[in-house]
Write a structure and sequence with these properties.
344 residues; Rossmann fold; 2 domains; 4-stranded parallel sheet; 17% strand
Length: 344
């Protein structure tokens, strides 16, 4: 078979490992030709490709990012975009297309399958870990490790200067990174999108901690965390060309509010895209490899419109239509029973 593959949305540790697995299983076991489309759906519409072979993928298992490049966007945003995707698939003899992406990319894949019968297989990708249908996504483990390492380092400087450090991590709609990094890093408070926070409660916790002789604290806040109405005034946020609110900055607001209410010297730390970059952890390399192998096998089973996933450590398939438009949020039993208890 002639199989296409693209990587869409934000970059993520483990993307190259997925591509490598698709190529190795496809070429060596199925005798496939793998065609990589550059820059996500743009590459499909514009027929910009690069050949992917076992030889060309050597050494990429530990490399972050994606050799194919990635962008956000959809063929549905362009007047003749869908027709161009169909024409590319037909004219280039592409028998199936593997779409490695997050909620946006997988939504496009699902719609193309439903509308046009495009032969697609999805692979879930996001460091936010918020895709339904799978218990974990690759890149999440790496992001948590990076955030935890940063928190470990911040503990020592916070203790040296008797400061509160507010660490802002990624997590637009779900606080998985904040929750796990907060638990692993021993944070004093964890603020997530799933649970609007009361800044006065946070400050009370910091004050009680100081009264017990703990003079330095770490507060972890997800970028999408929101204060309870009437507690902190949020400035109007810009919207990008895809209609997404531009996040980032809640850490500065929280740090300023803590300083104002308690008088404690407080510093905000924005980890930002550091969480996306660099070498994937061993766990993410293994998960990415399993997803890549499962994706090329799904192509040969003609399991179109399906997404590979992991549940109870077993690789499974789930319909894309059951995944899109939904967000897998943090288990509040984990948040309330662990993160909040051990940060109290």
């Amino acid at each position: 078979m002639r199989v296409g593959v693209l990587t869409g949305g934000g970059d993520c540790p483990g993307l190259n490992a997925v591509l490598r697995a698709v190529v190795r299983k496809g070429e060596r076991f199925h005798g496939d030709e793998i065609v990589g489309f550059e820059d996500a759906w743009d590459g499909v519409m514009e027929r910009r490709t690069m050949p992917l072979t076992v030889e060309s993928m050597r050494g990429l298992l530990p490399r972050g990012g994606t050799v194919l490049g990635t962008r956000r966007g959809s063929p549905y945003d362009i007047e003749d975009g869908v027709d161009r995707v169909q024409a590319t698939m037909s004219d280039m003899g592409i028998d199936g297309l593997i779409v490695v992406g997050g909620n946006g990319s997988l939504s496009v894949a699902s719609k193309l399958f439903t509308d046009c019968g495009l032969p697609v297989v999805g692979v879930p990708k996001t460091i936010d870990n918020d895709i339904e249908g799978t218990e974990v996504t690759f890149g999440f483990n790496t992001a948590v490790q990076i955030a935890t390492d940063a928190i470990d380092r911040l503990h020592t400087t916070a203790e040296s200067h008797v400061r509160v450090m507010v660490v802002e991590v990624m997590g637009r709609h779900a606080g998985w990174i904040a929750t796990h990094a907060g638990i692993a890093g021993g944070a004093t408070a964890v603020l997530v999108p799933e649970r609007p926070f009361d800044i006065d409660e946070v400050c009370d916790r910091l004050v009680r901690r100081q009264q017990r002789g703990r003079y330095a604290s770490i507060v972890v806040v997800a970028e999408g965390a929101l204060p309870r109405e009437g507690t902190i005034e949020l400035a109007d946020r810009e919207v990008d060309r895809f209609g997404h609110i531009r996040l980032g900055g809640i850490g500065h607001l929280v740090a300023g509010a803590i300083n104002e209410r308690t008088g404690f010297e407080t510093r905000p730390v924005l980890l930002g895209h550091v969480q996306r970059g660099g070498t994937p952890t061993a766990y993410d390399r293994v998960l990415s490899t399993r997803f890549g192998v499962a994706a090329i096998d799904a192509v040969h089973d003609e399991a179109w419109g399906q997404m590979v996933a992991i549940r109870a450590d077993q690789i499974v398939r789930t319909p894309l239509e059951d995944v899109i438009g939904r967000t897998r949020t943090v288990d509040l039993a984990l948040f309330d029973g662990v993160a909040q208890v051990f940060s109290a």
